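Q: Could you predict the 3D structure of Phorbol-ester/DAG-type domain-containing protein?
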Amino acid sequence: MLITEIEHPTHPLHKLKLESSPVPYICDGCKELGFGICYQCQICNFHLHKECGVPSSSFYHRFFEGCEFKFYEKSPRPDARRCDGCGRDIGGFVYQSSHEGANDLHPPCAKLPATLAGEGMTLELKKNVKSKCLKCKSRRNSSEGARGWCYVSGCGKFCFHVACVKEMVYEAWEMGYFNGQETEPDPNVDGSVVRSLVPSGPSSSTEMVQPRPGKATHYWKMVASVLKLILSAIFGDPITAFATLVFPLVQSLATN
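A: Sure. Here are the predicted structure tokens for Phorbol-ester/DAG-type domain-containing protein:
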């Protein structure tokens, strides 16, 4: 049953309604970027991802056998924490396991679909893969260890770290791609992902440099389809926001 209105202890002044945000927002729970449908108070400009507004008190994840994850509004551990799903810092709401060397997950990352299907493609969320990510060209990040989970196609040709896709979107957002104004830089983003490729405002797909005909054309169309699926899974299906962004992102991959 879909809950359309909630009372939340982090915002006791007003009830939060499940509505579509017209612009990107930073979730006041987990402090991660969000798009589209969320629990919000328009009076106070307060937003919570759906997963943060109505979290599970505890759950088990298939990637961590036997580990119970409990929900916390703030990590009970004093040290800096990183999400095991996307590799980004934990800054607020978190699911955390209680064993030694605890694992952490942002609420939206904890709920990432195991399988994505559409656009003539099926992708599976995996913890470890043999394929290299099409963005970072690696299975791992040499300076930080594992980059977190990946979505990978059955054939193994199409693979993206969740971390890499989020990084591309964060940089586009910081450059004002979605709302026409720049935001403060995010410390998790290296600042070089799409800077030379994403325009100051949304562009038409016709502005993308056309790939070579034949197999290459088909390949990059498939890459675009894969990105659309992953973007929708991570950020909640904001098709309008990402419709034109996909093409410069694919262009950046094609030219690197």
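Q: Anything worth pointing out?
A: The chain has a mean pLDDT of 83.
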